[in-house]
């Protein structure tokens, strides 16, 4: 098997190798971006859970205050 080492063939091989390595870098970048996005989504979900808990705590504190007022009003009425 004889391989011609002409400038054209060398340029074709170099082009194919560089295109292949470029695709690997692009795929790595895309994968990295998806991992960052996944991490950010998890952070947002965690923040949302914290906000929901804060809302529940606030609602419960209002309920406690309301019950205290009712108890105070009941104690003053008797």
What do you see in this structure?
The protein contains 1 helix and no strands. With 78 residues, the protein is mainly alpha-helical. The longest helix has 71 residues, at 7-77. It has one helix at 7-77. It is rod-shaped.
Task: Provide key terms for this protein.
single chain; 1 helix; 78 residues
* Count of individual beta strands: 0
Topology pattern, helix = H, strand = E: H
Can you count the helices? 1
Structural category is mainly alpha
Which runs of at least 5 residues are low in confidence (pLDDT < 50)? none
> Could you say which overall geometry the principal axes of the C-alpha atoms support?
rod-shaped
Please give the oligomerization state of what you see.
single chain
Termini separation comes to 111 Å
Percent helix: over 70%
Rg computed from alpha carbons, rounded to a whole number of angstroms: 33 Å
Largest pleated sheet: none
**Average pLDDT for all residues:** 87
Query: What percentage of amino acids are in beta strands?
Result: under 5%
